[in-house]
Amino acid sequence: MNSPLPTTPPPVTGPPATALSRFLNHWSAAITIPALIGVALTALSVVFFEEYGWGLFILLPVIVGFISALFTGYRRKASITSAFPIALASMLFLGLLIVLFAMDGLICLVLALPLSAIQVLIGAAAGISVSAFLNAKASASTALLLCAAFPFLVGFEHATEAPAPIREVQTSVLIDAPIEDVWEAVVAFPKITDEPDGLFKYGIAYPIEARIDGIGEGAIRYCVFSTGSFVEPITTWDEPNHLAFDVIENPPPMKEWSIYDDLDTPHLHGFMVSKRGQFKLIQEGRQVRLEGTTWYSHSLAPEFYWGAVSDEIIHRIHLRVLNHIKEHTEANTAGSVAD
Fold first, then answer.
1. Nearest to residue 92, comparing CAs of 103, 106, 80, 73?
2. What share of the chain is helix, strand, coil (3-state, %, to 5)?
């Protein structure tokens, strides 16, 4: 009886190829690889160009979401509901790497997270759509084109950077105290002893006290913050109704919340700058309306997002000062009446 001819054994795939294939087909690849690409692109924008604009906050999360979705859909059918959580995890891992490589602090990443999450969703949706209609090679080429577009966008923003727009924030409170007492507290308010709350607890600069050298126009007012002092030459001294000043020195807008001591990132210098400010005291019956206004610029983009964030921060700074002046002058008034 003739024995059957031996069959040719299947080709043996070596361990490295098998390990790589398994990794690329695993959810961990959809988290780690986009994050590693993202940290390299972040370094290009932040360290090399010192640019915090549309490339960093809009295109980069789209790239991370897109590449993550491609890996999620690698050799399997995937949907946006399965791809988005993994893409978001990749973005969070990128944030961790940014902190570890001392490119930024935690509070800035938290402030950017809502915008980044939306862009990651857009990128993940695009990645799932592309992977459904194109083969793996064409999908990878699309991802490479997106990555190649990033340095061009960041470089274009850097080369065509326009002067930062001036924004205005005004806040007011009503005070039950004589206008003369309110004026004295406005010119140089005593130390604020209340503990910082909200974002101030996590590094955003907050006011502590104000002092003044001299009287009238030309006097120098110093508004002391947790990160340093604003130097404010007085430009209008209309006692007790109007105090206005320029700002010629700005302390850092925050102290980074980081695993490293004294982390100093580019956006702490010249990206959020107070230009001038004023206090107006308006008598309304037996009360005084105290209005504080700040004119400032910031160079973060997109403006529609970071402008709203910085406006809210300055509004909270105003409230900390104005409420302190209110409490101080009303307490003094009540004490005078009691005496």
1. 106
2. 50, 20, 30
